[in-house]
């Protein structure tokens, strides 16, 4: 039923490969940044300072209640307006679309990750914290060496679910013209008019990524061991 | 931001030429409401299939869910907008396409809520119903589902938030909902992209934040009622 021979002509395969690579790069870079953002937000929120807590709550609620696409549009169209001339030129000289898509996706995923981490941390008994303090660790040290490593383990399945969402959300970058997989898919469709075949290939490519992430998250959810002492 | 709201409120809320009598916010709400109202019964059907005693049914429902959850919503929208009309041989409006795509995508997530609601009921209920001579379907219909529905309600309201956010993607195929109206405002003003898209984000924020607060309130109320009953 499906005839995929068109893929071999005119470099369409190369366009697909290009799209996959851009999607993977978008996923990897924004994913790594998101972890940093997530840990930072979680730490800020855990600190005993009211102002930080309020700031983190505002950040998380914004990213929760506004569609990711809109967040991307705000960054791509809106934020350059705030930058001084020089910085704008510097960003425009590079890959603007990719840059802002990465920032928007990373902040969005980071906000969600911080929520997952927080509920992971809540699963760690408070006595652990007290024990850490009593052996002379500071607040940040106890967080870094005692609480976070355990909390991350509890939160792992949820974090993998977030990575699945991030992978799918990376497709929204096409709306601002990032040449990721979905963008390339539409492009090849427009060139070949083989809508079914082209979409089928792209869907399978997405499924390879998402189904393996799903399998990984189910694997860790199943063998999730309770943190010591519980 | 004030000028944008003042000058273009019509486009955002009330509607004006060229989008017809309804503004972006109205179309977003209609799209979301249709999405929830139609995808809920569908998700109940798939949810029932997933907890049914028939293995082949569980398997088909499981595969379907995994496939849908594994593909970005934007990809599903493109399938519905570009590929399916070729198969059906009929022109379908962008609005209908968006509703259908959202139903397919969101029912796979609502289903998780239905399943959790059913699985959260005490086991004895089903056994009691069966021993009273009800068939599996009858016990579901008269005993299990009515109880599960009450448990599910807050999660369903919460899922409404994610449906509202999902409708923002309809912008890509030209449905004049909120995001699309903001893009229109942006092409008219051009010099104020940040204000325009922040107004857009604010619209979504107010809408989604209010609904998720309502879900939280509902959850506490149901929990209190249950505690009072016990």
TrEMBL record, chain A:
The chain crosses the membrane at residues 20-42, 54-78, 98-114, 198-216. Residues 20-217 form the ABC transmembrane type-1 domain. It is found in: Cell inner membrane; Cell membrane. Keywords: Cell membrane, Membrane, Transmembrane, Transmembrane helix, Transport. The keyword Transmembrane applies. GO terms for cellular component: ATP-binding cassette (ABC) transporter complex. One of its GO terms (molecular function) is transmembrane transporter activity. It is a multi-pass membrane protein. Its main location: membrane. GO terms for biological process: amino acid transport. It comes from the Bacteria. Belongs to the binding-protein-dependent transport system permease family. HisMQ subfamily. NCBIfam families: HEQRo_perm_3TM. This is ABC transporter permease.
TrEMBL record, chain B:
It is a multi-pass membrane protein. PROSITE patterns: ABC_TM1. InterPro entries: AA_ABC_transptr_permease_3TM, ArtM/GltK/GlnP/TcyL/YhdX-like, MetI-like, MetI-like_sf. Keywords: Cell membrane, Membrane, Transmembrane, Transmembrane helix, Transport. The chain crosses the membrane at residues 25-49, 70-88, 94-114, 148-174, 194-216. Its main location: membrane. Residues 25-215 form the ABC transmembrane type-1 domain. Belongs to the binding-protein-dependent transport system permease family. HisMQ subfamily. This is Amino acid ABC transporter permease. It comes from Pandoraea faecigallinarum.
């Amino acid at each position: 039923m499906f005839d995929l021979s068109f893929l071999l002509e005119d470099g369409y395969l190369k366009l697909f490969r290009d799209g996959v690579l851009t999607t993977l790069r978008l996923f990897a870079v924004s994913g790594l940044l998101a972890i940093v953002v997530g840990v930072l937000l979680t730490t800020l929120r855990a600190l005993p300072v009211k102002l930080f807590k309020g700031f983190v709550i505002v950040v998380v609620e914004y990213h929760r209640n506004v569609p990711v696409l809109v967040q991307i549009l705000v960054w791509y169209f809106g934020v350059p307006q705030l930058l001084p001339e020089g910085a704008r030129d510097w960003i425009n000289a590079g890959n603007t679309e990719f840059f802002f898509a990465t920032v928007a996706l990373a902040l969005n995923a980071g906000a969600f990750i911080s929520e997952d981490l927080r509920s992971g941390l809540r699963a760690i008994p408070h006595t652990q914290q007290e024990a850490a303090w009593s052996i002379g660790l500071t607040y940040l040290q106890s967080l870094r060496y005692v609480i976070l490593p355990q909390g991350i383990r509890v939160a792992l399945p949820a974090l993998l679910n977030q990575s699945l969402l991030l992978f799918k959300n990376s497709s929204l970058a096409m709306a601002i013209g990032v040449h990721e997989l979905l963008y390339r898919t539409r492009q090849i469709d427009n060139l070949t008019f083989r809508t079914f075949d082209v979409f089928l290939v792209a869907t399978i490519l997405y499924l390879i990524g998402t189904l393996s992430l799903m399998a990984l998250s189910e694997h860790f959810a199943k063998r999730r061991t309770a943190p010591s002492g519980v | 931001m004030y000028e944008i709201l003042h000058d273009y409120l019509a486009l955002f809320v009330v509607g004006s030429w060229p989008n017809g009598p309804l503004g972006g916010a109205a179309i977003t709400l209609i799209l979301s409401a249709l999405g929830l109202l139609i995808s809920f019964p569908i998700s109940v059907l798939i949810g029932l299939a997933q907890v049914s005693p028939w293995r082949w049914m569980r398997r088909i429902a499981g595969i379907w869910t995994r496939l849908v959850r594994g593909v970005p919503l934007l990809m599903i929208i493109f399938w519905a907008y570009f590929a399916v009309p070729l198969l059906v041989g009929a022109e379908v409006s962008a609005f209908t396409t968006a509703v259908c795509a959202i139903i397919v995508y969101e029912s796979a997530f609502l289903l998780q809520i239905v399943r959790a609601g059913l699985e959260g009921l005490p086991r004895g209920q089903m056994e009691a119903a069966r021993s009273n001579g009800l068939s599996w379907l009858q016990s579901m219909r008269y005993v299990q589902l009515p109880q599960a529905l009450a448990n599910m309600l807050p999660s369903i309201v919460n899922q409404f938030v994610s449906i509202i956010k999902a409708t923002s993607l309809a912008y890509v195929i030209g449905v004049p909902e909120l995001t699309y109206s903001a893009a229109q405002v942006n092409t008219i003003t051009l010099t104020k992209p940040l204000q325009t898209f922040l107004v857009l984000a604010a619209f979504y924020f107010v809408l989604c934040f209010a609904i998720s607060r309502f879900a939280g309130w509902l959850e506490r109320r149901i929990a209190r009622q249950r505690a009072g009953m016990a």
